[in-house]
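QA checklist item 7 of 12: single-chain prediction sanity check.
[x] sequence parsed
[x] length recorded as 386
[x] structure emitted
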Amino acid sequence: MPDPVRAVAQRLYAAYRYPIGVWAFSRVLTLLAVGMVGWVERQRSSTDLVAALATTLRSWDGFWYLSIAQYGYDPTIAHGNSPAFFPLYPIVVAAAEQVLPVSFVVSGIIVSNLLFLPALLALYRLTEDRFGDAIARRTVLYLSISPLLFVFSMTYTESLALLLICGVFLLLERGRTVLAGGVGALAVLARPVGILLAPAIAWHQFERAGRRPSWRLALRLLPVLLLPAALVGFQAYLWWRTGEVYATHSAEERGWSRTAEPLYLLLLPVAVGHGLWIALVGSHDLGLAASAIAAGTYFWLIVALIRTRTAPIAYCIFAVGCVVLPTYTGMWLGFPRFGLVIFPLVWMLAIWGARDTRIDSAVRMLFPALMVGFAFVSFGVGTFTP
C-alpha cells in the first residue's frame, strides 16, 4: 500500500475504530444466525453453505430488487409489479455484478453488507458531533444489534438508504446544502421515504435564515427541488416504460393492496394495543401483530423525541414522516424494517441507556436474542416478514 494511502487508512481507523469494530461484530453475528437457519432449511442433499445463505438473504422484497437489477422494469415480468420498488439499489447491485465474479444474489449481499459500514460511520460522526463520543458509541452499537439487524445483510435497500439519509444530515450540519440536495435526490431513488428529507432540509434552511423569509432563503431552498425532481423523473420513466401514469401506486395497490387510508393514522397512538388484539383475539397473525407493535413503539418514541427536544426540528420532521407515510397506506406490514432508517429514535434509546444502566443492559442482552429469534421465525417457520 502506498505511504499516503496507508496514512489515510491509519487516520480513518484511528477515528472510527469503534464503529468499524461494531460493524465487523454485527456482520459475524448476522451471518452466523442467518447461516444456521439457511443450513437447517436447505435441501437435504445440498452441502453448499453459500447457496443456503444466499437463498435466505434474497427472500421477499429481495427477489424484486434482484429482478430489477437483472431485467429492469419489464412490464411483462411478475405481473408488472416491479415499479413498486425504487431503482438505485438495483443499479448499484447491477454495477457490482459487472465487477465481482459472483451472481446477482451474492453481489447484492456483498453490497448490502459493505454499505452498512459507511452508513455506521456517517451515523457515528453525526451523533458524535451532536452528543459526544459516549452517545455515538451506544447509537451505532444499539443499531448494530437491533432485532432486525439481519435486514442490513439482505438484498434490501436499508444499508444504502441509511447511508444516504445520514449523509444528507451530515452535509446539512456542515452547511453543504447543494450536496445535501443531491444526496437527498439519491435517497429518493433508493426508498420512497427519501422524499421526506425535502421538508427536513427546507426547515433546516429556514432555521439557518433566522426563521425569516427572504430572497437569500429562497435561493438556499433551491436544492430542495432536486428531491421531488428525482421522484417525478423516476415516475416519468416508469410511465414511458410501462404505460401507467403512476406506476408505483398502481403496482403497490395491485400487488400488496396498499391504498390511501388517511383514517388509519388515528390508530397510531393505540397501535401497540391493536397489535396485542391481533395476536390474542383477532386473526392471530403474529407477524402482523409484531408489525403493529413496532409501529406504536416508533410513534411513542417520536413523541418522546419531540417532547424532550432531543433532536432539532428537522430531524423530528423526518422521523414523523417515516411513520406517517407507511401508515397512510393502510397497513402495518413492514413497519419494523421501516424503522431501521429512523436514526433519531436510536438516539433516544442511546441517551436513555447512558442515563440508566438497567436500560443499557437490557438493550445489550435482549436485542441480539430478539435478532436471532426474528431470524428463525422469518426464515425458518415464516411467521414474520421483515
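[x] summary fact logged: Residues 3-379 form one domain.
[ ] second reviewer sign-off
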